[in-house]
Amino acid sequence: MRVLFQLGHPAHYHLFKNAIADLQHDGHQVFVLIRKKDILEDLLRQSGMPYVNILPSGKKSAFTLILRLWRVFCFTLRHRVDVLVGSTPEVAQVAWLLRRRSVIMAEDDAAIVPQFIKAVRPFCDRYLSPTPCNNGPLESKTTHYEGFHKLAYLHPNRFTPDPAVVDRYFPHDRPYFLLRFAQLTAYHDVSAHAHGISDEIAQKMIALLAPHGQVYITSERPLSPQLEPYRLHINPIDIHHIMAFASLYIGDSQSMAVEAAMLGTPSIRFNDFAGKIGVLEELEHKYRLTYGIPSSQPEQLYQKIEELLDSKNLRETFRDRRDAMLKDKIDVTAFLVEVIETLDR
Prior knowledge:
Blueprint: E1 2-7, H1 10-25, E2 29-35, H2 40-47, E3 52-55, H3 62-78, E4 83-86, H4 89-97, E5 101-105, H5 114-120, E6 126-130, E7 142-145, H6 151-154, H7 163-167, E8 176-181, H8 187-191, H9 199-209, E9 214-219, H10 239-244, E10 248-251, H11 254-263, E11 267-270, H12 278-285, E12 291-293, H13 298-309, H14 314-328, H15 332-342
Parallel strand pairs: 1-2, 1-4, 2-3, 4-5, 5-6, 6-7, 8-9, 8-10, 10-11, 11-12
């Protein structure tokens, strides 16, 4: 079977990398198409995974969307692809046009990404998403599973945190805190008028955290001169090892908050999606692995930081909660591979 993976974001590399390897191990021919997006191409180069960049400019416009669709179409036709897999609309659209099979993986509720749902709904064969997700008009095509995107690469079957990796940068056994500032320019951020951590709020957080350990910032957006000294300088491929040993993660990126939960790292997310995303609601209220605070309530953010700093055995408590979550969840990569291989039967 010939399988094409379309990657449009660095998160897609992590989501699909193990499935790609497993399919290749099972004897299938796998192709990877990407577009320029942040560090996506760097991750692929470092991994040694072959790929084709169909949109090297990285520019986004109505024309580039059409160009991307056309290039996926041509590649699929030329290489006689059987199944297209990804989290982008053109995967479903090209498969429908060429009468191929498609698998879409997504974990944002329909209310958060309505335009994506509209672009995919008429075309996709299989739409895979975690149990808490509400996919609205796509529910009839949805296969829900007990898991999360991030368990495709952070499940214990797929990832083991390595303290030696952290020690390349700083001692893993000394308290440190990881802050994440997202760009907040993704479609779901802009459409929701999302706000996050301002410089003023960041400086207040650092003042609370610094007496208890080292503070590191990883940021998609430029940092002010006051915050630049805290920037984390690492190989991006090592970020999950860094996160696994952090005493606390705080950010305005819900994606990294989920990753922290998968690793048993206490986390706070501060943005306008608090209370709105099914996956994070389950992680917060069922498993108590993260805390969501609206961006309109910075005082609540400071109070939660102080509460966690004062908590005894915090890491042990969160590891126990993570273990309880893992008992309920599956190896998402194994599930995805089974779905893809079943399509050929």
